[in-house]
Each structure stands twice: as C-alpha cells, then as structure tokens.
Amino acid sequence: MPFLHSVLGYDIFASSEVVPEFTAAKATKKDEKSEKVDYAILKEGAVQILIECKCFGEKLTLKHTAQLFRYFSVTNARIAILTNGHEYQ
Fold first, then answer.
1. pTM score above 0.85
2. Tens-place pLDDT, residues 56-70
3. ∠ CA(33), CA(39), CA(43), 5° rounding?
4. Who contacts 30 (Cβ-Cβ below 8 Å, separation ≥6)?
5. How far apart are the first and last CA of the chain?
6. How far apart are CA 55 and CA 85, in angstroms?
C-alpha cells in the first residue's frame, strides 16, 4: 500500500483508483468461478494494472506467474505485477 501511494501516487482509499481483492472471472472453467487478484488499479473505471502479492521474501515461481496470467487474461489490464515485497516482476 505505501508503494502504491507514496511511489506511484495512487489514492489507496479511493475505490475508484485502487481496488483490493478485485474479482476476475476465470474464463477457462464452465462454472465461471471467480478468483481475486490482490489489487487492481483503475483509471476512469477501467482496469489498467493488476498486482498479485506474495509473502515477503517468498520465492516467486512459475505457479505464481500462471495464477497472475489467469487474472490478466480475463481483464483489459495492460500491466500485471507479481511481487513478494522485495522482488517485482
């Protein structure tokens, strides 16, 4: 949250800019099960950036990347970020 606010300049308390636990539907399942990405950054109501956060220092793996890709592929986001608070991909 401090990174989003202090570094990137987003108002973390404005739900029109930063949405925690953003719901992204999985298009690959028949039941349209919903999954949640940790944060979505919006501009004029449209998703621009998805951020998936893992525990500080946790090794970022292909499994985490695939999880974020599932969210990314069913939204109009242009950027996806995977982080453990130390490393950003």
1. no
2. 989 999 999 998 998
3. 105
4. none
5. 17
6. 7
